[in-house]
């Protein structure tokens, strides 16, 4: 049955709004943490929105080589926020994009075999990794709540009030609203917080005035990528965790759409995500993953056709070519952003805990895997100089909390669960049969 263009457009807008907050907040957090200028931040937001649309098309467009063909919307992954900030601060922006490009190539190459590697990423590993990522993001949120590191009014009552006011508004909106309004409660909270901040004199619209109405995407806007071992290992780990999460979304959408997901479908889905990350690295954007909030929208609306997602992707690409829209998002004060971050980053931690809920907690081995990996990840993040005296080739694996925690989880899982010696059955000695 043919759908009315207005209905397709309205459903497309709904998908854009559902993912927009998550999509723009990632570049805002990363750009703020790396000290980008207003012009650079505007570019980062705009290009992120545009490449989200491109990434979505790669996934929805089913062909011989890539694209799972399900109504999936892709956006930049929150899993990458803390690692990208750590890489940028330690190695510079160019190393971020070198690592993203290599991780994308890695995903394209191992897509065919990843189904077999999934056994090394059970819930005890992925849950631990996502929990570590969420925990390491919380200090970023707290600094923003106070007004942003280095700001003259850091910790002022006005900043704290704005942050907690925004957080309270989001919580109340989530509690007392339903459906679509509830799904964009973060976005509405950010808008409301910014309006209040405007009347307090904390909003500067100069970036919007300076931004042009149209621009072209520039490959390697922040310079040519550089390739460092630690950042590459970090982003490959992030990519593999994202693939595990995406697999769950593929199966959930396959169930909603009444389509059986086979191994060849998974491979094409993985390749599409790898290609999206390569494009993200080239245009100085981010790695991409499936957005589960859009899966919820498909479930609620009951519309499962790909043309709605193509429409949403086209809208994202158009928005990406209009820097003034991107600049609008950069006027959000750090304290307002910080209030929303607490909810979002807390949700990352909660997602990790939810993954861990599938773990067999009666097993002492699993408890030890979680304890050691989360402890190691948090410890290295809090005391980054812990392994500073080790040789450089070993420090590669220990100087980043997420890498250290992730590798701990993977290795302990192999030790306790993959190489587990089968429980010894009492030897049954057969008595010789009487002749």
TrEMBL record:
<feature type="transmembrane region" description="Helical">
    <location>
        <begin position="368"/>
        <end position="390"/>
    </location>
</feature>
<feature type="transmembrane region" description="Helical">
    <location>
        <begin position="308"/>
        <end position="329"/>
    </location>
</feature>
<protein>
    <submittedName>
        <fullName>Xanthine permease</fullName>
    </submittedName>
</protein>
<feature type="transmembrane region" description="Helical">
    <location>
        <begin position="94"/>
        <end position="114"/>
    </location>
</feature>
<feature type="transmembrane region" description="Helical">
    <location>
        <begin position="12"/>
        <end position="35"/>
    </location>
</feature>
<dbReference type="InterPro" id="IPR006043">
    <property type="entry name" value="NCS2"/>
</dbReference>
<feature type="transmembrane region" description="Helical">
    <location>
        <begin position="396"/>
        <end position="416"/>
    </location>
</feature>
<dbReference type="GO" id="GO:0042907">
    <property type="term" value="F:xanthine transmembrane transporter activity"/>
</dbReference>
<comment type="similarity">
    <text>Belongs to the nucleobase:cation symporter-2 (NCS2) (TC 2.A.40) family.</text>
</comment>
<keyword id="KW-0812">Transmembrane</keyword>
<keyword id="KW-1133">Transmembrane helix</keyword>
<dbReference type="GO" id="GO:0005886">
    <property type="term" value="C:plasma membrane"/>
</dbReference>
<feature type="transmembrane region" description="Helical">
    <location>
        <begin position="68"/>
        <end position="88"/>
    </location>
</feature>
<feature type="transmembrane region" description="Helical">
    <location>
        <begin position="181"/>
        <end position="200"/>
    </location>
</feature>
<keyword id="KW-0472">Membrane</keyword>
<dbReference type="InterPro" id="IPR006042">
    <property type="entry name" value="Xan_ur_permease"/>
</dbReference>
<keyword id="KW-1003">Cell membrane</keyword>
<dbReference type="Pfam" id="PF00860">
    <property type="entry name" value="Xan_ur_permease"/>
</dbReference>
<feature type="transmembrane region" description="Helical">
    <location>
        <begin position="220"/>
        <end position="244"/>
    </location>
</feature>
<keyword id="KW-0813">Transport</keyword>
<feature type="transmembrane region" description="Helical">
    <location>
        <begin position="154"/>
        <end position="174"/>
    </location>
</feature>
<feature type="transmembrane region" description="Helical">
    <location>
        <begin position="121"/>
        <end position="142"/>
    </location>
</feature>
<feature type="transmembrane region" description="Helical">
    <location>
        <begin position="335"/>
        <end position="356"/>
    </location>
</feature>
<dbReference type="InterPro" id="IPR017588">
    <property type="entry name" value="UacT-like"/>
</dbReference>
């Amino acid at each position: 049955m043919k759908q009315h263009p207005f209905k397709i457009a309205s459903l497309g807008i709904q998908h854009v709004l559902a993912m927009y907050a998550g999509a723009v907040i990632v570049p805002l957090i990363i750009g703020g943490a790396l000290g980008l200028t207003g012009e650079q931040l505007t570019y980062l937001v705009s290009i992120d929105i545009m490449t989200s649309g491109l990434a979505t098309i790669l996934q929805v467009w089913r062909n011989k080589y890539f694209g799972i063909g399900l109504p999936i919307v892709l956006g930049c992954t929150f899993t990458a926020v803390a690692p990208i900030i750590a890489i940028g601060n330690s190695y510079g922006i160019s190393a971020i994009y070198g690592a993203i490009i290599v991780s994308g190539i890695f995903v394209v190459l191992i897509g065919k075999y990843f189904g077999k590697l999934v056994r090394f990423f059970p819930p005890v590993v992925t849950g631990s990794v996502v929990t570590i990522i969420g925990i390491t993001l919380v200090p970023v949120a707290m600094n923003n709540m106070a007004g942003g590191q280095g700001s003259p009014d850091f910790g002022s009552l006005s900043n704290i009030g704005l942050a907690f006011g925004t957080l309270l508004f989001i919580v109340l909106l989530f509690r007392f609203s339903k459906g679509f309004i509830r799904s964009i409660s973060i976005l509405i909270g950010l808008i409301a917080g910014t309006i209040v901040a405007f009347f307090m004199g904390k909003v500067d619209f100069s970036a919007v005035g300076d931004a042009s109405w149209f621009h072209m995407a520039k490959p390697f806007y922040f310079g040519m990528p550089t390739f460092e071992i630690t950042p590459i290992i970090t982003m490959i780990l992030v990519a593999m965790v994202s693939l595990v999460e995406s697999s769950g979304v593929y199966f959930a959408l396959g169930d909603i759409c009444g389509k059986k997901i086979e191994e060849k479908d998974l491979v094409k889905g993985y390749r599409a995500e790898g290609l999206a990350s390569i494009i993200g690295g080239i245009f100085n954007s981010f790695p991409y993953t499936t957005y589960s909030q859009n899966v919820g929208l498909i479930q609620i609306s009951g519309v499962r056709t790909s043309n709605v997602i193509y429409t949403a992707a086209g809208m994202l690409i158009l928005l990406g070519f209009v820097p003034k829209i991107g600049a609008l998002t950069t006027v959000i004060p750090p304290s307002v952003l910080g209030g929303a971050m607490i909810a979002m980053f807390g949700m990352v931690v909660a997602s990790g805990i939810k993954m861990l809920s599938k773990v067999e907690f009666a097993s002492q081995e699993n408890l030890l895997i979680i304890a050691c990996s989360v402890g190691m990840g948090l410890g290295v993040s809090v005391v980054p100089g812990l392994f500073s005296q080790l040789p450089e080739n070993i420090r590669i694996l220990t100087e980043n909390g997420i890498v250290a925690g992730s590798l701990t989880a993977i290795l302990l899982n192999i030790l306790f669960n993959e190489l587990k010696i089968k429980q010894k059955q009492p030897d049954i000695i057969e008595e010789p049969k009487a002749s």
